[in-house]
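Recap quiz, item 2
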Amino acid sequence: MAYLRKGTRSIRYLDPAVVSKLQNMELKARMIVEGYIAGLHRSPYHGFSVEFAEYRQYMQGDNIKTIDWKVYGKTDRTYVKLFEEETNLIGVILLDKSGSMGYPTEEEAKERERSVRRRDRADRPPPLDKLTYGSLLAASLAYLMIRQQDAVGLCLFDEKIRTLIPHRSVRKQLFHILQKLEDVQPGERTSISPALHEIAERMKRRGLVVLISDLMDDPDELIRGLKHFRHRQHEVIVFHILDPREVDLDYRDAVEFQDMESGRRLRVEPAFLRQQYAADVRGWIDKLNRDCRNHQIDYNLLRTDMPYDQALTAYLGKRQRMG
Amino acid sequence: MGFLNSIFLIGLTAAAIPVIIHLLNRRRIRKIKFSSLTFLSEIARSRMRNINLRRLLILVLRTLAVVFIVIAFARPTLRGGAFLLAGKAPKNVVVCLDASFSMGVDLEKGTAFTAAKDIAKAVVDEAGRHDALNVVVFADGAATPLDRGVRNKSLAKSAIDGAKLTAEATSIQRAIDTAYDIIDHSDLSGGEIYVISDFRFNADSTLTGQRKDRRDVRVFFVPVYEDEVDNVSIDRVLVPRKLLRSGEVIRVAVDVTNHSPQNPVSFPLELVVGGNRKAEKVVDLAPSASGTVTFPISFNDWGTYRCRASKSHDRLAVDDDRYFLLEVSKSVPVTLVRGMKRLDEDVERAGALDGSGHAGYFYLEKALNPRGTAEGEFAVTTIDENALTAASLPAQGVVVWTDPQQMESKRFNLLERYVARGGALMVFLGNSDRRLWQDARFLGLVGMRAATERTNQSRTGYTSFQKGHPVFSIFNEEELEMLARTRVRRYIAARGVAPDSVLAYVGGGDPALWECSRGKGKVLVFAATPDLRGSDIPLSPMFLPLVHTSVSYLASAGGAQRHPDHRVGRQLVFDAPAAALAASQLVIRDPDGTPVRPLLFETPLGELQAICEHPDKVGFYRLMRDTTAVAEAVANADTRESNISVRAIPEGGFETASVVSTGGDFLRNLQAARQGREIFGLFILLAAAALVAESLLSRTA
């Protein structure tokens, strides 16, 4: 995490709360990505193309990994290889837009903002809901993919697929994707597994599947859906988005909760349930993590108060492993 | 359990606050949209009962905390408890110091009274800095040497040091009442009363219980010593004759008691008269036994003798001497009371009958004091019936009432009381007022049910004498025959006179002379008046002997009269002539010779009495006019105090009373007793425990 200390500017653009204040989705995505890259200080595009272009004499500052040692053996001079840039990856971003992704509601977010202000005496923006956080993450990934000349597609779903933008690598594709993400609103009930199966059936070529969701569904059904992608040789990254209060149930007084999808109501004393609830949620997360690992699926838990760099790092790591 | 500040219990309404807050919170519940209730509903289902129980428990704990705090501020007290953390608020501390004579008992280190003073000073030392201290020195009465409560402990100790032992009995109830009065009039609420006494008398009889309206006052009984101490006391002295004459032998009886329940005693008992030992006897008494020792003594000269019955001093010395006065008379005082009214009406007629015009009292006066001098056998004082006063009724003499008329009620009361207390009365009924024959009180006094005036036509004399009776026993047959030859002309025929009390009859069969006992006194009644209208007896040579034997008999008659027994602490009334009291320069000398100002009291009949209001020493008190003693009186110790055997300390009736033992470490006992009363510390602890439990429950939840 050393890069986070390089400059305030780059850190600020990775803060979800700060980024959310920007108007334009493309601008938001660019800020995240550029902020991340500015902190990284190395090219994310290097070595991804396979088409050889020419040799060039090694100059100071070139990575020694690019030195062609065979040529050195023959000529006793150091040359580096240059490659043609071309896309070699299909990426599909699956964004869950179910009702539960709308948590926390605008009203609660403002209440939290007020309480944070009272406590810290700091002027902080309200926390993001999970859908907004996920949208920004999706936009950032799409921007990054397009920058890498990869083909990227987008799928918005709740209990079924609501929007599907097929993968393309042109610059205009980013515009389409960002437009959809900008207009996205929480939908109905969650049913991830059927959507996953349907998308898995539609993807003909091997690619990278990025699932951004709160995974509020039956874990076994969910894993079955993800296994479908693995069965078809796709690489899968799961970004599990959760609000901090969904993890620790940090409510003080008695509360009447209303389920955002089913509308069911439940009156509880969070203080009395907090411990058991947190343990149960931890158990659920651990199970998801374990099941994903068993099926070579990258699982990343993201809380909506976390910066985006963790997600981008996870993505880039995966991308690099895919070659 | 009681409360010293029960007003604070109003605060118990604050216990409703947690409940109200709880109910308000339930109503102001927030509604929040949550992503998924999958986890919550499962947990809530399994833990709902537990949660509700905990919530209820927390509510109960909060309520209890408030209740305990309120109760703690109300300063709860618990009888017989042994809890820590007593209250520190300023309060009244009243030390009641027993100065009764039983406190004069010798212990190993001084008297019990000295030990009591040390204990009292220790109690003062233990009092709080802001406590109001007061001292009550009590015996039969209670005195407060300090005008009001003081915070200066030195002042309180000085008051304790200044207390003096008395010869009075103990009244613990009076001491406690005085202490309560002090607390009632104090600015501070509540307090502690320390009764420091030997508790060796029958204290239960003087304790009636605490005041119900002051339960914030705690009473501590501190027994000065707890050992058994033997004691023998002289309880009283009895002189069997009311009139003592020189040359006569009288038997003085002295009652003594061994108060020890275990040990028999043997001791010499002596009778001291005028500073000289007159007689001595050795007395043996079994445990808890009483006895009477009789000393026969006689006096050659008339006058007032100071006497004392004494025994060797034991550990309680004050009851080992008993003082009394014996008055040996030179002559028998006789008060001749004249009934005037009827006499005035009939005197002329009576004079016509006997030719002399003299009334009955004239012949009586002549018979009792023929020479008319002050040195005769009888000292006669003649007064009118309506001038009768208490002073004119001789304690050791005889009242002769001739021709009784309707007497004023208050004077008749005096006469009745005089006879009932042992006085002697001789009545001549002959010319009595007819209305008296309807007066039940008069008829009762002279021992008959009804009467009629009767003229004896046959003019027979006295017959059927009771020859063995002292009135006639000195007469021989010839003398009695002379008496029988007298002519009785008019007399009062009495009905209902007990036959065995009749000493002589008139020839017709009516009682001529009878006697009756009223209370401790005797009444001798003659049916006829000694004038010539009634009979010719005044002219009989037997008249003078008959009057003399009758008066002498009455003067020495009657049962054993208890010698006037004045106790220390009670008013001492001097039996002095009215003329002596009229002087302004009167002073009382107590047994040590210390002058005491007498209190002059005027009775409803206008008589003056000299009173020593509070005699505090045993011995002889003299009423002096200038340098002359005009009267003398005696004060002795109250023998109720003499029993100093161990008794249970009377806690009964006192809800907040306890006994602080002086055995072992007195200060520790005192602190334990004091702190054991108030238990607000316990409730503070309970409140704290409730709050901690509430906090833990909330946190773990």
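Residues 79-87, 559-563 of chain B have pLDDT under 50 and may be disordered.
Chain B has 15 helices and 37 strands.
End of item.
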